[in-house]
Design brief:
This is Protein phosphatase 2 regulatory subunit B'gamma. By secondary structure, the protein is mainly α. The chain contains seven helices and no strands. Helix content is 47%, strand content 0%.
Length: 216
């Protein structure tokens, strides 16, 4: 079990030094505390969600605390959806850290360890055991088609919302294609990236900017 090492967290995270099973703290609901304390409680819940549970070797372990984490994530989503100006400056780095801890990891070995190309028609993909709670990943090369599909949807939304990132996103997609063509000759997410690219190109306004012409 991996944990967040932030100071001030109310989680009992040092499993190696604790006596007995892992026992995180069940925090209050954000709506049940005064407004002045909500930011602090929100950060505590973010840190609480930095604990990673075992979905591979023992998927039935820590079921109670997996549910505590799931409920905390759902509560935070509801809180920021229905309240304005709640994402304050101290919360931003906590959110980024929690996302990174939960979402970014090394891809599992290929289904074909000998180096043969993965064939989606013939080969069984390596399905991520922890995938049901992993939905936002910058890993289009995953063999898990569910992950690629959710990532495709997420990238569409990020591209639509963050105008300042559009040129950067297009450049990174180009870099993946260059690496695929000139180096690896294999990438599991090319079809999804081409679909995203099609949507991006359809959104170009006329007359085309010089940057868009170079991109095409």
């Amino acid at each position: 079990m991996l944990t967040c090492n932030k100071a001030g967290s109310r989680m009992v995270v040092d499993a190696a030094n604790s006596n007995g099973p892992f026992q995180p703290v069940v925090l209050l609901h954000i709506r049940d505390v005064p407004p002045a304390d909500q930011e602090k409680l929100f950060i505590q819940k973010l840190r609480q969600c930095c604990v990673l549970f075992d979905f591979v070797s023992d998927p039935l372990s820590d079921l109670k605390w997996k549910e505590v984490k799931r409920a905390a994530l759902s509560e935070m989503v509801e809180y920021i959806t229905h309240n304005r100006n709640v994402i304050t400056e101290p919360i931003y780095p906590e959110v980024v850290h929690m996302f990174a801890v939960n979402m970014f990891r090394t891809l599992p070995p290929s289904s074909n360890p000998t180096g043969a190309e993965f064939d989606p028609e013939e080969d069984e993909p390596t399905l991520e055991a922890a995938w049901p709670h992993l939905q936002l990943l910058e890993l289009f090369d995953s063999e898990d088609p569910r992950e690629r599909d959710f990532l495709k949807t997420t990238l569409h939304r990020i591209y639509g919302k963050f105008l300042g990132l559009r040129a950067y996103i297009r450049k990174q997609i180009n870099n993946i294609f260059y690496r695929f063509i000139y180096e690896t000759e294999h990438h599991n997410g090319i079809a999804e990236l081409l679909e995203i690219l099609g949507s991006i190109i359809n959104g170009f306004a006329l007359p085309l900017k010089e940057e868009h012409k170079i991109f095409l």
